[in-house]
Specification:
Layout: E1 4-9, E2 16-17, E3 21-28, E4 45-52, H1 53-58, H2 63-66, E5 71-76, E6 89-92, E7 95-98, H3 100-111, H4 117-124, H5 127-136, E8 148-151, H6 159-162, H7 168-181, E9 188-189, H8 201-209, E10 214-218
Parallel strand pairs: 4-6, 9-10
Antiparallel strand pairs: 1-5, 2-3, 3-4, 5-7, 8-10
């Protein structure tokens, strides 16, 4: 029976996309120092975590920011070797949760002084401003099939695409996705070497129209 373990920390490698699942490495610091009298110390261990695309999408984190976050992962160890396992131990992710933000909130609550009656009253009279800030913090969803994120300025558009007349209905569908999810509904298809646009010109056009800084791409 596979042994269930818990690993926490920041990813030690970029996330790898294998289609039906994703994988990334995490480095565990091991257990605390051994009891007094035992001269051995625990060494760091690298784990390769395997998780489904559905699990990753629930985190609402773009791949380029993934390695900067801190997570706790729980799941059984893999009892068979597999090709994409670069770490010493493979782990099937059953649960993954971000923990960095919670730690920040605790630190901020300790540092924030108590507010007087006037300050509390002012906050109560500005609910619209709080709602606006909540919308600005809404995280971008990652479309299925995304391999990378790229600036629109890096994508080269062939002259043949510029001659297309885009349908209003298709543009509206992409605009609705940007309003709801923060980005286009599907990745833009490009050449990985030349960064030339191969397909999805309508999504590129609307993304540029909406002044998106980066868009999801697929090779």
């Amino acid at each position: 029976m596979a042994h269930k373990i818990t690993v926490n920390g920041c990813p030690a490698s970029p996330i790898q996309d294998y289609g039906k699942y994703l994988a990334f490495d995490m480095e565990g610091k091991g257990s605390p120092n051994a009891p007094k009298g035992i001269p051995f110390k625990s060494n760091a261990i690298t784990y390769t975590v395997v998780l489904s695309l559905k699990q990753f999408n629930k985190l609402n984190i773009v791949q380029e920011e993934f390695s900067q976050r801190r997570f706790v992962v729980q799941g059984p160890c893999l009892d068979i070797p597999f090709e994409q396992c670069t770490g010493e131990i493979g782990v099937i992710c059953m649960q993954i949760q971000e923990i960095e933000e919670k730690e920040k909130e605790k630190k901020q609550s300790k540092q924030t002084p108590k507010k007087g009656a006037r300050a509390r009253k002012q906050e109560e009279t500005n609910p619209q401003e709080e709602n606006k800030q909540g919308k600005e913090k809404k995280q971008i969803l990652v479309p299925k099939g995304t391999r990378d994120w790229m600036s629109l300025e890096e994508i080269k558009v062939p002259e043949t695409f510029l001659q297309f007349t885009l349908g209003i209905a298709k543009q509206k569908a992409v605009e609705e996705s940007i309003e709801q999810n923060g980005t286009v509904d599907k990745p833009i298809i490009i050449d990985p070497e030349t960064h030339e646009l191969l397909d999805s010109y309508s999504r590129y056009f609307v993304a540029k129209k909406k002044n998106l800084k980066r868009v999801p791409v697929h090779y």
